[in-house]
């Protein structure tokens, strides 16, 4: 096992995953500045954007582009650099590499090649928004960006509607209204939603309310900036309704559920077994209920 994590040497290099500020440059950590200053190469999602950060902290390190359009060619080349002993820092435009940003492919290839991968933590928009949202912070489910096409967007939300965790999404300003409208239609107008806009920046803003209220806000407002959209998880009543929609038998008494399956052509023992499994009940208990034993 290769545990080497030092900078440039004659052995294999190290891949550093460096968090960058999500807005306020003062959120850059001292360790992140030191890492970017000392590595041999910085792999950036957008070299022009990263150059602004490097200029601010007077970092002179060489840069190369690594993004969603070139990773298939660039990631193997960077692995070769690492195997040759050069240290590489990967950064996205803001926040953590790999979290709704490029990064995962290079990490996977580096690990497969036996190259040490070292995270240099820092700001993340999703977690930053979550702790100030007022929604239950854990458990939470991070999804990132939803599909752009309306039909796919609706289908994705339908699959998520019954999740009990607080859900975290990212959304671009020009798609926010469509996303919130679909959210209201699928999850209902009363689901609690929090919009976090321009986090850590001058015009940071939180909008809290029901799905219907945030849709009204979006329709009445000039939408600017990148958004984190946080959605409260389904409560017990919503979860039961979702389960009932997926399985109509779930709301029936045990004996009636078994009888429905029998009427559909299943043998009684098979129907009893199926209902017992679906409801995590003892098979013999379901048998006795169905056959009205013990006075049931």
Overall description:
The structure is a single chain. The protein has 296 residues and is of the alpha/beta class. 42% of the residues lie in helices and 16% in strands. The chain is built from 12 helices and 10 strands. The strands form 2 sheets. The chain has a 5-stranded parallel β-sheet, with helices on both faces. Strands 6-7-10-8-9 form a 5-stranded mixed β-sheet. The protein is globular.
Structural class: alpha/beta
Per the principal axes of the C-alpha atoms, what is the gross shape? globular
Distance between the termini: 63 Å
Mean pLDDT: 89
Tally of helical segments:
12
Q: In percent, how much strand structure appears in the residues?
A: 15-25%
- DSSP, total strands: 10
The biggest beta sheet is recorded as: 5 strands, parallel
Q: Catalogue the unreliable spans.
A: 1-9
Strand order across the biggest sheet?
3-2-4-1-5
**Element pattern in H and E:** EHEHEHEHEHEHEHEEHEHHHH
Computed over alpha carbons, the radius of gyration is 26 Å
Helical content band:
40-55%
Summarize the topology.
Elements: E1 15-18, H1 30-38, E2 41-44, H2 47-56, E3 63-65, H3 71-83, E4 88-91, H4 104-112, E5 117-120, H5 125-133, E6 140-145, H6 150-160, E7 166-171, H7 176-187, E8 192-197, E9 205-210, H8 211-220, E10 227-231, H9 236-246, H10 254-263, H11 268-278, H12 283-290
Parallel strand pairs: 1-4, 1-5, 2-3, 2-4, 6-7
Antiparallel strand pairs: 7-10, 8-9, 8-10
């Amino acid at each position: 096992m290769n545990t080497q994590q030092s900078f440039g040497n004659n052995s294999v290099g190290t891949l550093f995953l460096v968090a960058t500020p999500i807005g306020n440059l003062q959120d850059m950590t001292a360790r992140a500045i030191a890492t970017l200053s000392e590595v041999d190469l910085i792999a950036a999602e957008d070299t022009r954007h990263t150059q602004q950060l490097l200029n601010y902290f007077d970092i002179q390190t060489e840069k190369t582009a690594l993004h969603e359009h070139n990773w298939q060619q660039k990631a193997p080349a960077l692995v070769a650099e690492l195997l040759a002993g050069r240290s590489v820092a990967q950064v996205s435009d803001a926040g953590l590499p790999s979290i709704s940003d490029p990064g995962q492919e290079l990490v996977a290839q580096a690990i497969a090649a036996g190259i040490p991968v070292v995270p240099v933590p820092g700001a993340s928009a999703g977690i930053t928004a979550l702790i100030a949202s007022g929604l239950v912070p854990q458990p939470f489910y991070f999804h990132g960006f939803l599909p752009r096409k309306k039909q796919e967007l609706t289908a994705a939300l339908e699959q998520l509607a019954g999740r009990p965790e607080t859900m975290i999404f990212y959304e671009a300003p020009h798609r926010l209204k469509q996303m919130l409208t679909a959210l209201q239609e699928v999850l209902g107008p009363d689901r609690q939603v929090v919009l976090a806009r321009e986090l850590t920046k001058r015009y940071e803003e939180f909008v809290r309310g029901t799905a219907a209220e945030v849709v009204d806000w979006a329709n009445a407002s000039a939408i600017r900036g990148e958004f984190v959209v946080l959605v409260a998880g389904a409560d017990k009543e919503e979860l039961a309704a979702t389960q009932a929609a997926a399985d109509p038998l779930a709301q029936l008494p045990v004996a009636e559920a078994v009888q429905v399956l029998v009427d559909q052509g299943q043998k009684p023992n098979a129907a009893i077994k199926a209902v017992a499994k679906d409801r995590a009940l003892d098979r013999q208990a379901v048998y006795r209920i169905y056959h009205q034993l013990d006075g049931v």
